[in-house]
Design a protein that fits this description.
Hypothetical Protein Pfu-838710-001; eight-stranded antiparallel barrel; 9% helix
Length: 152
């Protein structure tokens, strides 16, 4: 079984903008809180991801690569609006941070995530990392479909 341990923070400032971002399109076939089923396209790759219920910063996760053409077709079946974002991978203190800059219905939202080996793992926050929102369900990508950031 796969396990994801991830902490999520709001982004403040522009100190993270030194790297080039990659465009993501993703949608959800299921957004019930017990499980989400996500379809994503990045460049010429497609993925199908199933995630379980979050318990703190942890949850089970299974991810499978699928043909890009199939992922693009599945996006048409997903709940709307789709999530459109650009992801920036920023290294800080030998840790990889992923900064997501959202567009479309979630324009203006900036979130940084860090994946950890355990919930107790220590890490140092860059100066551009603000308030932690790991357990705030409003910031879950799956919830940004039914409650987009621009409507808060």
């Amino acid at each position: 079984m796969g396990m994801e341990i991830e902490r999520k923070f709001l982004v403040i400032g522009n100190g993270w903008r030194s790297v080039k971002g990659i465009e993501y399109r993703q949608g959800y076939l299921s957004t019930v809180k017990e499980r989400t089923v996500r379809v994503r396209t990045v460049n010429d790759k497609g993925t199908l991801t199933i995630k379980g219920l979050s318990q703190g910063a942890s949850r089970i996760e299974f991810e499978y690569e699928i043909p890009f053409e199939e992922a693009a077709q599945l996006l048409d079946l997903c709940e709307k609006p789709l999530i459109e974002k650009k992801r920036y991978e920023v290294e800080h203190d030998n840790m990889l941070w992923e900064v997501d800059e959202f567009f479309g219905e979630n324009e203006g939202l900036l979130v940084a995530e860090i994946e950890l080996q355990s919930e107790e793992q220590e890490f140092f926050r860059p100066e551009w990392v603000g308030e932690e929102v790991t357990e705030d369900a409003r910031y879950f990508n799956a919830n940004l479909i039914s409650h987009p950031y621009t409507k808060w």
